[in-house]
Write a sequence for this structure.
């Protein structure tokens, strides 16, 4: 099994890919809603990277990862 740093790095790479897709969509004046979708996906993946780095279990079902993070860390995420 991968260690927490490898898991976090994997999620960050996936999130960065979503952000790159969103940027390409916006630069080409592609559908705005598609760019927003990829931004939302990136946020979820960055939050999953945070959970992995903290050694916490990543939720696979609803509530979304951001609810899990905010419930445990509140506004003090650093």
């Amino acid at each position: 099994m991968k260690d927490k740093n490898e898991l976090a790095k994997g999620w960050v790479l996936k999130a960065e890919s979503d952000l790159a897709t969103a940027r390409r969509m916006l630069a080409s004046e592609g559908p705005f809603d598609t760019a927003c979708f990829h931004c939302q996906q990136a946020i979820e993946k960055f939050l999953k990277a945070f959970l992995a780095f903290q050694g916490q279990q990543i939720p696979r079902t609803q509530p979304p990862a951001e609810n899990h993070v905010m419930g445990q860390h509140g506004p003090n995420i650093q």
Q: What stands out?
A: Residues 4-76 form one domain. The chain is about 70% helix and 0% strand. The CA atoms of residues 19 and 39 lie 6 Å apart.
